[in-house]
Each structure stands twice: as structure tokens, then as C-alpha cells.
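ok here's LCP family protein required for cell wall assembly, seq below lol
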Amino acid sequence: MPDGEPDTGTRPAEPPAERPTGDERRRPQDTARAGLGAALGLTAASTVLPGTGHLALRRRRTGGLILGTLVAVIGSLALLVLLTRRSTLLQNLLSTTTLTVIAGALVLGGVGWIAQIARTYALARPRGMALGQKILGTGMAALLCLTVAVPFGYGVELLNSQRGLLNSLFQGGGTSAAEALGKPRLNVLLLGSDAGDDRTGTRTDTMMVASIDTTSGRTTLFSLPRNIQRAQFPPGSPAAEEFPNGFRDPSGSAGDYLLNGVYAYGEQHPQLAPPGPTPMPGINLLQSTISYMTGLPIDYYLEVNMAGFSSMIDAVGGVTLNVGPEPIPVGGVTAFGRHTTPDYYIPPGLQTLNGNDALWFARSRRDGTDYQRMGRQRCLIQAVITETSATELISRFQGIAAVAKDNVATDMPQQVLPSLAVLVDEGFRLESVAFDPSLPDPNSSSGFFETGDPDVDYMQQVVRDAIADPPPPPDPALAAPTPAPAAPPSSEQAPSSSATPESGSASAEPAPEPASAAPQSVADSCATAGASDVPAGEEDGSSSTDTTTNGLGPVEGVRRQDG
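and the structure came out like this:
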């Protein structure tokens, strides 16, 4: 009121206040909703690329540290993969110490990643949210954290499974890698056994010695047929004194005295088996005879139980190979060798076989011979090694580990495995020599190797020649074609794996095409033969009547339990 004017007791009217519109009344809720969406957006960005949420919230120091650490780790891993030899990476993945360190790093990395996601949401979330918004925001942030936790957790579980597999399978002695690979060659006995609830005893129907050159990695497989008779034992050993003329039944029956029966015989007569190198007398006795006949000191053994072989093939996703020009029958042979209608046939040509088909591809004996099965075994080994990628192994490793623990046994120590894997990975070249009736033997009356009466001196000579450094290839201009040797006479044919009861006698197996005593490339032989064959060499689990040779003539009507 101006000075000098009388006070009338009234005040000038104030302008009426504006009433908030409907949009203005909803503004706090809309703001909270918009703030929640932005917070979740920043949280999602931090989930995809850690540190970006902090940078958007102007926490540059923290965000830069998080993002810089991530870039440094990814860059270091990329350089490691690009610059480090594959064999070195493989060696580290077979070391339990390295696996433990990697698992610990994954745990720390996962916890750190999840922590920065949670922190981003805590900084970005709006204040004063309604209860429903709080629940929604917290739930979405937790879901984003879970998307990171799952792959990290799977990686840790995968590494722990690898460690568990190594610890359960490779429990051999404390031999160091330098000691094991310091010798010119490392010899591993590969066995495919038929142990199972429906089997009488354990028979090793697949027997191979993998002789590995510790300098080049060149590997030669020496395949021994299951029907080798009169297996020889080291002179002076209890088994040699028991069987001075080779492993044979004095009564004349050869059914339980083939090479595939040595394992079971050792288990039944442990006093005849060497005391080592394993606690299993059957393995020790079989290892001693194979070592003596080939002249190769056996360093380790690896046994695959055929009862779980099909599961192992399924665990790696099957195997693709060329079945060959003829279909392979599944089943079709009774317990007494009688031919019946097969359950079905595996089609010829290039096929991807599941575990059951791969097993029958190995064991089918209705229309084939033992020696054809041996060839399929070598081809399947080649196929599994060359066709199984690292990605498949990683994605299916849990299943592989679970099956392997129950169906694989070995005395190879963990310390040797990484260096051996590096050696094979860098220079792997698989060759093979099969001691079957197609192998030329100048000391034999037939001109071919006789499984009924094996020439041990000649076997050792073949092995020595095979593992020697290969001679330089001949000059094509000077090389002349060499005529193929004649096929062995029928009296020296391999024992038939099946017989027709109606005929009253078994038909002799035809010998395969003549071969050289020199080692053959498995990859080349499988490709040119047009048939890929399997490693598990298991029979169809039945008894049959065989015609086997004893070195003097056929022994008719031998009853045996097939593997």
C-alpha cells in the first residue's frame, strides 16, 4: 500500500491458480516408467558389452577400466590362438593344472561380468518407483545376469568334466613325458573287448599295436587276427613252459585257444601271467605274447569295451564313411552259425552311421571274413580321427566323458598324454600291416602268412622293416611293374567265422587280395578299397562252428564263443 493512503482492510485479488491438466497429473509415473526403460536399456548394453552402461552414466573412469580390461583379454586370447601352435593349445587342454587355472579364470570373469551388470542397473534405476516397477526392473536385471552366468557356468562344468575324465582314465604310474617319449618309439596295445552281461568271459577280438615314431609322429598299426593259433610266449616264462609249442589245447580243440582267448585264459590262470605291468593278469599275459611275437616292447595298453562302443559313436555324433559297394547285414547268424534273414542291411556307399550301425559294421560276419572286419576296423579308426572336429568334441564332450569312463581302460599316465597328443597332432600319418593270409611269407609253403602256425621270426622281421625309415620312392622311369603274388591255396585259408549246419562242415574263408609286407597308408587303402571298416572288431556275440587251421590241416567243427 502506498504511503499516505488509508488502509481499507482489503487486499487486491490474486489471479486464480491454474489447475493441472491430466497429462501433468501423470507426469511422475510416466517419468518413472521412462526412467525404468532407460535403466534396463543401459543394463542390457552392459550385458552385451561390459562398461558401456557406466560410460553412458558418465562414470568414465570405471566404464573405461571395465571396457579396457575386456578388450585386453579378448585381444590377448586372439593373439594366443593366432600365434600359438595348435599342438601347444592341445597340450594345455590335456593338462589338469591348466584346466584348473582356466576354470578359475572363468569363475572370476563371470562374477565380474555379472557384478558390473548389477551395478549398472543400481546406478541407472529411477527413484520412487512403484512396487510393480521395482519387481519388473529387478527381475529383468536378474534375467540379464543369468544370460551371462549360464555360458560361464557351462564352460566351468566342461572343464571340470575334462579334468574328471583325465583323472579317472589316466591313472598310470608316474612316468614322465620326457622318459616315455625319450625313446625312439612308443608302442601302445589297442584292444577291443567283448565283455558284457551276455558274454562268457572276455575276448579281445580287436588287437592292434600302434607303434609311434616319437620324432615324426608316423604311426604304424600292426593288426593281429583274433584267430591266430599257437601264440608264442617269451622263452623261459611260465606260459612258455606251459605251452612249449604255442598256446594250444592238448586235446586238439582250438576254439578257446585262439589269440583272442589269451586274455580270458590269463584271468583264469593268473599264475602263468607276468606280475606286471598292470594288476590284471589277462592283460599282462596277452601283452607278453603280442610283444614277443611282434618284437615290440609294449609301453601302454588302451582297451575299449565293446558293450559301450555304440554309445561312444553316438556321443561323437556318429561317423561318416564309405560302407563299400555291398550292403552290410545286421544280424543274420544264429548262436550256432546258421544263416538267417538279417534284421536289416546297412546301405552301400557313403553313409553316416549311428552307434548301433557302426558296431554292426564292425562285428557283422554273415557275409564277410575276419580279415575284412580287420580292414574295416582300421578304416573306422581313420574316419573317427580325421572327421571328428574340435567343435563337435567340445559340444558333445559331456556325453563322451560319461561313456568313456565306463568303457575305456588304460595304464597310460596323465603326464604322457599331452606330449603324445602333440606328437600325433603334428606329424600324424597312419599306416598299417595286417598279419593275415594276404601277407606274403617266403618262409611258408604256401607263400603267405599262416595264422594257424605263425612264423614268429618272420613276424618280427616284418615289424622291423615296417618301422624302419621308408626308402626313397623309386624313379618312375626305372620302375617296372611287379606281378602280384598268387593267392594262397585253400588249405591255408583263414578260419571261417561262420558255418552252415546243414552242410555238416564249414566253408573256408577266401583270402583277401594279395598284399605287400610293407606298411600301407590307411587313408589311401580305405579310399581305394571303397569300404570303410570299424575299430571295434567285435563279433556278433554268438557261438559258431568254425573251420580253423592248426598248421597241419583244418580242424573241423571247432565250437567257440564269439566276441
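fwiw The first strand starts at residue 185 and ends at 193. kinda neat tbh
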